[in-house]
Fold this sequence. Notes:
Layout: E1 8-12, H1 18-29, E2 33-37, H2 46-53, E3 58-61, H3 71-74, H4 76-80, E4 91-94, H5 96-104, E5 108-125, E6 144-155, H6 163-169, E7 180-187, E8 202-209, E9 214-217, H7 229-247, E10 262-263, H8 269-280, E11 306-314, H9 321-332, E12 338-342, E13 360-364, E14 372-376, E15 381-386, E16 393-398, H10 405-414, E17 430-435, H11 437-443, E18 460-465, E19 467-472, E20 477-485, H12 491-509, E21 528-531, H13 535-550, E22 556-568, H14 578-588, E23 593-599, E24 602-608, E25 611-615, E26 620-623, E27 626-631, H15 639-646, H16 649-670, E28 675-685, E29 689-699, H17 706-709, H18 714-722, H19 727-734, E30 742-743, H20 745-755, E31 767-772, E32 777-781, E33 785-789, E34 801-812, H21 818-833
Parallel strand pairs: 1-2, 1-3, 3-4, 4-9
Antiparallel strand pairs: 2-10, 5-6, 5-7, 7-8, 8-9, 11-20, 12-13, 12-23, 13-19, 14-15, 14-18, 15-16, 17-18, 17-31, 19-20, 21-22, 22-30, 22-34, 23-24, 24-33, 25-26, 25-32, 26-29, 27-29, 28-29, 31-32
Amino acid sequence: MLVPKPRILFIDAYDSFSNNIISLLETTLDAPVRTIKIDDPKFESDEDLHKELRHYDAVVCGPGPGHPAKEEDVGITKRIWSLSEERIIPVLGVCLGFQSLCLEFGGQVRRLKGPQHGIVRRISHVGECRTRPEASIFSGVGEVQATMYQSLCADVGQDSIPDDQWQGKKWCPSKSAPDLVPLAWAEADLSNLNDSGVDDVRVLVAVRHATKPFWALQYHPESICTNEESSQIIENWFQEVQGWNMLHKRHPAMSGEPLYGQNATRESLLHRSEQLLPMLNGSAEFPYGEHFSTQGESAVDEDSELVYHCHTMALPASISVVDVVEAIQVGTGVRHDQIVLESSNAYEQSIGTADVRGRFSIIAMDVEDSLRFDYTVQSHQISAHYPGKGSKTVRTTDLRQFGGIWPFLAQYLEKRRIAGGNSDSPFWGGFMGYTTYEIGLETIGVQTQGRRNGPMRPDLSLAWVTRSVVVDHVRSVIHVQELAPRDATRHVLDRRVNFMMNLQIVNARNSSWTPAKFHKTPFESGPSVIHLPHQHEYESKVQQCQEFIRSGNSYELCLTDQTTVTRSKNGAGTNDSSWDIYKTLRKRQPAPFASYIRLGSATLVSSSPERFLKWDEQGKCELRPMKGTVRKSETVDTLAAATALLDVPKEKAENLMIVDLVRHDLHGVCGSGNVQVPRLMVVEEYKSVFQMISIVQGQILPAVDHRTVAHMTNEEIDNAERIRHTGIDVFAASLPPGSMTGAPKKRSCEILQEIEGGQERSLYSGVAGYMDVGGRGDWSVTIRSMFRWDDEHEADEGDPKETWHIGAGGAVTALSTPVGEREEMQTKLNGTLGLFR
Ligand SMILES: C=C(O[C@@H]1C=C(C(=O)O)C=C[C@H]1O)C(=O)O
Ligand SMILES: NC(=O)CC[C@H](N)C(=O)O
């Protein structure tokens, strides 16, 4: 007889580490975990809660922002402690869950003197103490190094015990909280890894209830920096759970009744849109078919499979990406829309590490003749802009009925997926463009303030690029590529190849190739009006952030502000100086993820050093969060000096928090056990700063093939279909980029909306890049950049102006200083702003 696996229910308090805990549970215990939110209205009545709980062997009450005394912060968790005797269920509380347990049974919860977020401490536990027979869940556990994420702590009267009596009393319940049996402490003298100036000498970090089956941990067992011993504690806990259930004859219901708790792995975007299909098919508005074909109104592109054509040729060393872009324009004339994703650090050995030294640059051709999708958060509408003579045709659809923007994009790309293109080229054709920070806010359910009355500008703008040039800087070749319907003649590509040949001939004749038509004087800013963030205001915003951290509402907040530069337009010919600005910036700040994007009314000029997310056709995903910045100066001018400076708790904690957050985002798609951190806190050199980075990788599960299906139950098949993910799932699940928000993501974004006054970050803090028909994608975080809108000065007459927006900021933690943060923001700002001064 098949013995059913035990089940665990995870109660999620909107934390950004929840999926990591679920992964730890599932990989350690071989018990599937389901999850509900603390405020799920389905469980308003105790009866409904009980109906769900009876299916599980145990409950885990998770961590989260806020205070355990606040109903809205803990919700269902609080009700778990007071279940009647016949309904009681074994529990593990983690962090907020720990604090809630302590508060329920006589402990106080107060603020720590110094919040501890992303700080690793050695803890002293009852299992290390030979004189104590009941080691409980710490039995057989060695030395524990544990990551803390806490502003608050449980007070069971520990500080009133005189030092000389401490060792004798530390494992005994106090009079005020007789039900709470201490199991572990973080003590100041044990904090060998923690030199953050801890004032809190005795912090209770693990307890069990004296009579009920409740255990809890204040530290984070799932953090990447908590050591391996942690899994032993989880195993021990589950043994206790099973022992208790057996002893009390508590047998979880195994009936076929559907469970309400969800799998932590998200339903895939493809599945979501397929679920909607039967409901929507036949509707004239259905957007995945001809309605939004890639070729415009007349084409029959849905019936015609796309074919990839490529011509590869040598690229003379003297020809740069800028030359290629300008050479293309010799053939076509300067067009408004442009997309260039450049590894502008390709030739600078010191900038970035080998994996981002910049092998490829990608240039879109004929963007203006391509279909473009714009999506706006306020309206939920997508508009398809079809190329055409004169004005473009625009079709608009409200995407709410189709499950929103992400299922639409996933489905659109999947329908055009091809295999077998040039494997040396990272991009064969597909979407290129940008998204804003605000689309990320929409995705995580945070209301955007101050938006309603502003102009409707896109939050996502993607061109469907079918002709492109990929520059391979390592092999010194270029790939001139075209995606075309099977029956199309290839004249466009051929013409381009001829043209590229000309480029070579010209180069051979004249080794210093300068296409005369585009040779402009170097960018000169001319007079401009610069509005900078007010220094004192910025510092006071840092303090506001720290107050939110002290109260337990956030662990880290990435505060930002915007500078504007307004100046006369002074570009000759195109009436646009943005390309000259880009050319100057790429030299001034070479970066692995530089980009120049003109789409619709937006222009983005970026020298981003930070990869947001890359994925390949096998479903391998990589995020590369950056946290920890030092300015290059005379005293700090080597990698070694910068590494030493960043090797301190403040910087490491900043980085660690985002690594754990990104792991959570990835786990939500890739599933338990499928996320790794191959590089943790490595310092890299850039032109004007040193940056600490980490690499987090995940593997999307492959789709099940028909041979395996034969051996699967219906439930397993359904589930496999439900999680048939692609890179876009990870993309959507990870916005806004964790390095630009702080943790936990949702609460931190809400707080930042308040502190930043609802000011739109727009393209800054968004992402730019591509996702292609070959199933690959690569996106950067839009920082160290500037953007502007063509329509911002539409009403100006006479002297036309333009306004560049430059965002900059940095992560604020409990260990930040207002002046230090303001200076860090200015350092980042100066790299771009310097162009105008
Ligand atoms: C906020 C910015 O950068 C972000 C913040 C960093 C930090 O706090 O150290 C580092 C890289 C970026 O993720 C910016 O450049 O404006
Ligand atoms: N990680 C957590 O659960 C944090 C709990 C609580 N908000 C605190 O800051 O102490």
